[in-house]
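Let's practice the habit of predicting before peeking. Look at the sequence and jot down your guess about where helices and strands might fall. Then scroll down.
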Amino acid sequence: MKKVIVTLGREFGCNAREIGRQLAAKLGVGFYDHELVDRAAQRAGISGGMVLNNDDFDYGMDKCFYTEKAIEAQGYVIRDIANHESCVLLGRCSDFFLSEFPSVLHTFVYAPLPYRVHHVSEAYKLDRRAAEKLIAKIDEKRHSYYRYVTGRNRGDRHGRNLMIDVEKFGIEGTVELICQACSQLGLGSE
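Done guessing? Here is the structure:
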């Protein structure tokens, strides 16, 4: 079987984690999300307490993640996983670190703000205003970190093979589109 690696970039509030889980299950491959942070932090020597305090909202926001050692560790972990197995990698600049790898599909999911506000409001039990503020905060922090590491804008179409509006296609439709793209490119097939 030919290796399949999917990088999944996203805007906050698109339910990309669920898309990644379902995609990995459908492809029969590993799914890497928070484990990427844990492995990179361990490799960079960032304390366990610091990582535990950096949940999804704070990933990459603490100064310890902006060090050359931490970024190098993150790239090492992502490339190491990609060298050894088929997988779906959620965020963490994985598209950048795997830009020269064969058999990789670089995807990005996004949605209009009202869709994301609705999802974040339900998922985190927030009112509309609080959800909007959280989306703006997380998107800006993720964008700043991505720009710092890669020198590019997170949602830029360059370097992406497929960008999908989750509102238009839904979770299952988005997963299906990515699977179809993998098939079209001969990824994961014999």
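How did you do? Helices lie at 16-27, 34-44, 48-52, 68-84, 94-97, 113-124, 128-150, 166-184.
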